[in-house]
Amino acid sequence: MQMPIVAQLADIAIAARQLLTDLRPHLQARPPVVLMVPTRPHFGRYWTWPADGRTSLRDAAFTLRTGAKMPAIGFGTWRLWAKDAYQPVRWALEVGYRHIDTAEGYANEAEIGRAILDSGVPRGEIFLATKASSVPKGLADISYASDIFTFQLAQLGTDYVDLYMMHTPPSDPQLLQQVWRIMESFYEQGRARALGVSNCDVRDLQQILEFATVPPAYVQNLFKIYKPGEQIPVEDVVAFAHRNHLVVVGYSVQTEWPHIMVPLQDPHLLTIASHVGRTPSQVLHRWTLQRGVGVIPKSAKRERILENSRLLDFELTDEMMRLLDGLATLSESGASEIKPLQEDVFGLARVSAESAPQVKPNSLGLEDPRDKGFPYAAIRDHLLGDPLALDPDMCRQTCLNEPRCAAWEVCAPISPEAGCGGCYLIGHISTPPMRIPGWHAAVERSPA
């Protein structure tokens, strides 16, 4: 039941809700379970941002591959249709936002352009990002792409944008390349100072990077506590983007779609928010920043716009970050698979392993994986995500639980100084492990 068909989704949701309703008295009668977050070596997994309350929104910035600075905290305008966008953008600029995100498809570029003009903030102080919506989505012929972009600039009241992105990559590889070539021409003309992609996966980025003369500098994807990076996660798009020097920005950080639990009501989040004395929304956006992902919160209310701007006067500890990371594992994992590929902070793999028959060593695997490892050149293009803080036994079990995992390796104890950040899961391997003292490695599945 990984991907239920739409016709059955309503029946499945009703049945699941009834099951939870029937279980509620039993669950409420049980005492709370206290889980201790296991300690682990600190190896710089999280990003550091100012927390002194004195740094401006303009100065807390990413550096794009073009060398341009992009404020990490921007103001989003999705669903601020037409005239509804003017006043919120004015408020955002008054509060101090200097990064405004819009799109052709939002139908609000004229109001945003007018708000920028009326604000009195110099154009050069604002990072303005917009998207090509109709052509990549097949709603307009590609021959109109240049005219549409020219019209967008006129609506925004500017002769350039700091970032121009595809709203959604076309599924047709030929159209994808054609649209990108046209976007490159805007870059070469100086009318788009950086290029990017929205709503993409790793495959889309790989295709673009293969043919692009001007590579993308930016990715904008759904990034929420339950789905950090993609709507249907397959491979960690954020980790891939960072490895390829692309800045990542997340949208809809606090939305519940497609889940039932509203993130702002999650008891784990509420507890952490109470502990740090901040609102749940502020904690979610700070968590996103410390994951190395920019944010573009949207609101039509001045008090919310101000609230979401106050992210640089507190920080979350590593333990808090790991607990929040773990909510995706609680949300996405099933009985036979732990998802996404990240630290299993709540120990779901251990619980699953204890309740299921133990997997016997694969005939391909090593009886003794100690002092074995793989040349990095053989695995670097096949890693299934960032390293996980796991011991050798749990690293192997995690690989066995993940159908895409062909092999694994980890050094023990974890030692960043030795070039090992934890457990590496490998999707394809054609090289047998070699002797490397202090490492553990094994091949568990035959190469595809």
UniProtKB/TrEMBL annotation:
Return the SUPFAM superfamilies for the record: NAD(P)-linked oxidoreductase
One of the entry's Gene Ontology molecular-function terms is: oxidoreductase activity
User: What name is this protein filed under?
Assistant: P100/11E protein
Report domain NADP-dependent oxidoreductase positions.
Answer: 73-253, 269-327
What is the organism of origin for this protein? Symbiodinium necroappetens
